[in-house]
C-alpha cells in the first residue's frame, strides 16, 4: 500500500521519541509534527534529517484504513494501547 498523500495521520497520532528538526525532544502523541506543511506533506521526506522511525513506517490497510480519518483513529488507538 502507498501512503495517501496529504493524510498526515502518522505524523500526528503517534508519539515520536527521537529528535525531529524543530522538535528536539520528539513529539507527544496527538501533536502535529512541525515538519508537516499545510498540505500534510512531510518537509523532510527523503532528507537525511528525517527521523529513522518515520522512514521505517510502512502503511498498510489495517493501520491506514480507507480514509485519512480512519488512519488517524486507528493510529491513535494503537498509540493508546501501547500506554496500557
TrEMBL record:
InterPro entries: Puta_zinc/iron-chelating_dom, UPF0153_domain. PANTHER family: UPF0153 PROTEIN YEIW (PTHR36931). This is YkgJ family cysteine cluster protein.
